[in-house]
Amino acid sequence: MARPSVPVLSVEKIAVAALAVVDEGGALTMPGLADRLGVSASSLYHHVRGKAGVVEAMRAQVFAGVVPEPEPGESWDAATRRLVRRYRDAFARHPRLIPMLTGHTVTDPQVLAMYASLASLLRRAGFEGAELLHAVTLVDSFTIGSALDLAAPEDVWDASTADPVLRAAVAAAPSGVERADAAFAFGLEAVLAGLRAVAP
Q1: How far is the C-alpha of 95 from the C-alpha of 1, rounded, in Å?
Q2: Whether pLDDT at 63 is above 90
Q3: Which pLDDT value is given to residue 7?
Q4: In the CATH scheme, what architecture does the domain 1-64 have?
Q5: Cα(46)–Cα(54) distance, rounded to whole angstroms?
Q6: CB 3.0-4.6 Å disulfide test: which of 38, 70, 75, 126 passes with 199?
Q7: What 3-state DSSP class applies to 190?
Q8: CA-to-CA distance for 36 and 17, rounded, in angstroms?
Q9: Banded pLDDT at 6 (limits 50, 70, 90)
Q10: What pLDDT is attached to residue 157?
Q11: Each residue of 23-56: pLDDT tens digit?
C-alpha cells in the first residue's frame, strides 16, 4: 500500500488538536488525544516525547507570531509594550493552557526566541545578569496574569457586602473585557515605569 502524500500526523496537527481539548476543558491524556486525531496512541510518540512534548508543542503553537517586527528607532519600552500586548492576547485565547505550562520547562526554540527578544529589550533598559532575568520574570508573570484576567467572569467580585472602599472601586470601574483591558493597560505602564525607576 502506498504511503499517503501528506502525513497523517505532524507536531503542528497534534498541537492544534491538543489545544482544542484543553480549550474545551477536557483532561489532556495521550489516549484521549489519539482518539481525537483518529490514530493510535503509540503513533503520537513518533512525533512528540510524551505529554511533556505535547505541552511544548502547544506552547510553541500559541507563541507563533507573538514577537512583532522591529520598528526603526523604537525605544525599548515601546517595543516591550507591543510584544507584551501580543503575548497577552495570544494566551488569553487559551487560558486553560496556562496552568499546564507552569509545570514544564521551556525547551521549544521558538518560545525561547521570544524570551530572548524580551531579554534583549530589557538589556537595552540597562539590566544585566540576574537582574535581567528578574526583569524578564516580572514581565512574564504580569503578562500571564493579565491573560488569565481577560478570561475571568464578567463580574470578578461580588462586592455587595464588601468593605465600602472595595465596593466603591468595583462600582466605578467597567466590567468584563473592558475592565480587563483597562487594568492591563494600567498595569503595563506601572511595570514599565517601575523598570525604568530601578534600571541600573
Answers
A1: 43
A2: no
A3: 54
A4: Orthogonal Bundle (1.10)
A5: 12
A6: 126
A7: helix
A8: 7
A9: very low
A10: 84
A11: 998 789 999 999 999 999 899 999 998 899 999 9
Round to whole Å and give the CA distance between 190 and 48.
40
Alpha helices in 24-150 (DSSP H): 30-37, 41-44, 50-63, 76-92, 98-101, 109-124, 129-150
Architecture of the domain delimited by 69-198: Orthogonal Bundle (1.10)
Cell numbers at 38, concatenated = 483518529
Comma-separated ranges of CATH 1.10.10.60 domains in the chain: 1-64
- Helix then strand count (H, E) for the chain reads 10, 0
**Rounded Cα distance, 67 and 115, in Å:** 9
**pLDDT given at position 123:** 97
Here the cell at position 178 is 473592558
pTM of the shown model: 0.84
CA distance 63 to 58: 9
User: What is the rounded average pLDDT of the residues 149-176?
Assistant: 86
| Cell output for 143 | 503578562
